[in-house]
Amino acid sequence: MTAEGQIIPEDIMAIAAELANATIRNYERNERANVARDAIAKAILAERERNAQPRKKIIEAMCELPHSIDDEKVEFRFSSRRPGHNALNQLLTQLEAQFGAKGGA
To answer: Fewer Cβ within 10 Å of end Cβ, the chain: N or C?
Structure first.
């Protein structure tokens, strides 16, 4: 075989070809491993976000307000001791406090 005008013995070309193939296989394996790692990391982050227990925060916010719950309904009552002009506004204010959001309306 020749490469750039030099004659390279077959045994050296065979070793070089094997090393090149191994390098390519390792690169492809590493790339697949990186893709798998990234997918797993994204899944773990999504699971953490999903398990952040927003339901628990909502329930905690609701329980801070005067309320009653039965099989058919959940009722929130206005409290003159809390900020807000009606029970819904007080609930939204409490939820915003739990989630760190500011209302725009």
So the answer is: C
Residue 92 lies in a domain: yes
6/45 same-domain check: yes
User: Tens digit of pLDDT for each residue in 44-87?
Assistant: 788 777 776 677 778 888 888 898 888 998 888 888 988 888 98
Range of the domain at 63: 54-99
pTM for the full model?
0.43
CA distance readout (Å), 10 to 2, 3, 7, 64: 10, 12, 9, 82
Check: CB of residue 75 under 8 Å from CB of residue 88. no
Higher pLDDT, 25 or 2: 25
- Please tell me the distance from the alpha carbon of residue 11 to that of residue 25, in angstroms, as a whole number: 21
Residue 46 shares a structural domain with residue 65: no
> Does 64 lie in the same domain as 31?
no
